[in-house]
Amino acid sequence: MTASRYDVLGIGNAIVDVIARAEDDFLVAHGMNKGAMALIDEARAKKIYDAMGSATESSGGSAANTIVGVASFGGRAAFVGKVKNDELGRAFTHDIRAARVGFDTPPASDGPSTARCYIMVTPDGERTMNTFLGAAQDLHPKDIDEATIAASAVIYLEGYLWDPPHAKAAFVKAAEIAHKSNRKVALTLSDAFCVSRYRAEFLDLIRKGTVDIVFANESELLSLYETADFDTAAKQMRSEAKLAVVTRSEKGCVVITRDGVEAVQAMPIEKVVDVTGAGDLFAAGFLVGHSHGKDHRTSARLGALAAAEVIQHIGARPAVSLKSLAAENGLATS
Amino acid sequence: MTASRYDVLGIGNAIVDVIARAEDDFLVAHGMNKGAMALIDEARAKKIYDAMGSATESSGGSAANTIVGVASFGGRAAFVGKVKNDELGRAFTHDIRAARVGFDTPPASDGPSTARCYIMVTPDGERTMNTFLGAAQDLHPKDIDEATIAASAVIYLEGYLWDPPHAKAAFVKAAEIAHKSNRKVALTLSDAFCVSRYRAEFLDLIRKGTVDIVFANESELLSLYETADFDTAAKQMRSEAKLAVVTRSEKGCVVITRDGVEAVQAMPIEKVVDVTGAGDLFAAGFLVGHSHGKDHRTSARLGALAAAEVIQHIGARPAVSLKSLAAENGLATS
């Protein structure tokens, strides 16, 4: 195994978030599952946009948010994902490169526009997402560069990649290259509904060892094992995964290994403004710690720190340097 | 004079803000005047965007921000301005209509793209603006609908309208219709550099009585009368304007009439995050009060309240209902 060029390379749907505040009534009136991500077509995208309030646009995408978080911690980071060569695609590209993330996936020159996620933030800070996949549909195995994957210590993949038709093949190709190069593969289960769409395949990835590190939140874990009992699901995960980290909102997280289940507390915060990106940024902190050889507890504390930062403001990417924030909290990352 | 359909109708450059945090060094390195608005061409826009950090996009434009503020206070509001029929133009249109502002100016179908303002927010909360006027260049007298102007109690115009070639004619046409219909005309001087570009014309508008209400901040007032002494400039304004309101940041504002100069305090706030929109929202509050028959002091307090709200978060438009905020502060607007 040669020295790595990147600490973490993420592969995911390249999405621009369109964020508006909304009341709970709005979700009900538009048949949205609060807290979940729904895939929508262009007609529904138009309908939702026409109905929703004044919005701001900012670059998003689950794995992309994580990778920007890794870079903010000072980690060496790269991203693979598909935008179109349009205004929002140029904004996505600008933003991720401005965050010092390597991003060289060629944009689509025709086909649907850059993916958009219409996010409703309710007064309790919860976010409800509606994704029009657009150009992200066109991520293809040919977008996976073997040398870049082989030079990345960890590749990080989002479960949402199972939605676009060719992205799954890109995912599998990347995982194979990574393991051939003695690199690690991490997967986030993304969303409880995503898990229910692809449960058998996700379990297969974990059981076969295609995935070395699993990230999930509580509802995704419960959905994976089709149970309402956390301990039952955690025990099942422990018997199948090499390493899994399950986030539990204000209850913190548990790190699950063959050795046991270790709980790590959340960071106390003043007020939840917008939970968008909480899981993504948790994964960023954990991966930075992990790729720098920190123990699981320290890695989880870095995750908790990053998650706490991102839920205290609107938007899914850090508003401050996570490297500085970590240093201020006695959690040096390098 | 018949009953009005709108309390305030604004005419201005329709702009999407592209906002990023930046250090003071960045402004120096790129030759920007801190706190000011510079007009830039497409080549410089590209250069600035390539150099600046991760950004968020949100609808802006000085008069448009004011009008959205008027609507947020529960005022009946309309806006006239030119976007292109592109992604950012659709975002601008969506956002202003979602704020319950009447907006019917037809978008340009060809020519330059929707106007963008690249805004650098430094750690002290000051904002430095670089505007690519794009489609806003094409606002034309034919975009001014006589019946709509005649049905608006106050029309509100931004000094920035002097920059695009035909907008000045649109401005003059609107002011003539308004006065013919016994309506009032308000003007914001916009920016000290804008004042130095068009000083003679702005003075002429005030002296001729084309403008009934002048909004300015301290540096714009000083620029207008080419003096460094506030009292000298205020005295001069008092001798020329029917009504002028001059904002002085944390020192509050002064309301200048033929009767005298009355100071009104600013609202105390915890932390300035981003001053973008402070003057725009001050004008919104004052105009709402004025158009509802409140005295100048009450109108100025409504302005101070709205300004205080907008500088405590990123972005130039209110994040909460100003009507509710006014009620909570014992300043009912209706």
List keywords for this structure.
homodimer; 334 residues; alpha/beta; UDP-N-acetylmuramoyl-L-alanine:D-glutamate ligase; nine-stranded mixed sheet; 12 helices; 14 strands; globular
Polypeptide structure, described:
- The structure is a homodimer of 334-residue chains.
- Chain A is built from twelve helices and 14 strands.
- Chain A is globular.
- The first copy, chain A, has 334 residues and is α/β, with parallel strands linked by helices.
- The first copy, chain A, is 39% helix and 22% strand.
- Chain A has one domain (6-12, 61-111, 136-328): UDP-N-acetylmuramoyl-L-alanine:D-glutamate ligase (3-Layer(aba) Sandwich).
- In chain A, strand 10 (184-188), helix 7 (192-208) and strand 11 (213-217) form a beta-alpha-beta unit.
- In chain A, the strands form two sheets. A nine-stranded mixed sheet of chain A has the order 6-5-1-9-10-11-12-13-14, with helices on both faces. A five-stranded mixed sheet of chain A has the order 3-8-7-2-4.
- The model of chain A has no long low-confidence stretch (mean pLDDT 96).
- Strand 4 (56-60) of chain A pairs antiparallel with strand 4 of chain B, so a sheet runs across the interface.
| Strand composition percent of chain A | 15-25%
**Largest inter-chain interface?**
A-B, 27 and 27 residues
CATH superfamily of chain A: Ribokinase
| Assembly level | homodimer
Mean pLDDT of chain A: 96
How helical, in percent, are the residues of chain A? Answer: 25-40%
Give the termini separation of chain A: 21 Å
Number of domains of chain A: 1
Helices and strands of chain A, in order, run as: EEHEHEHEHEEEHEHEHEHHEEEHHH
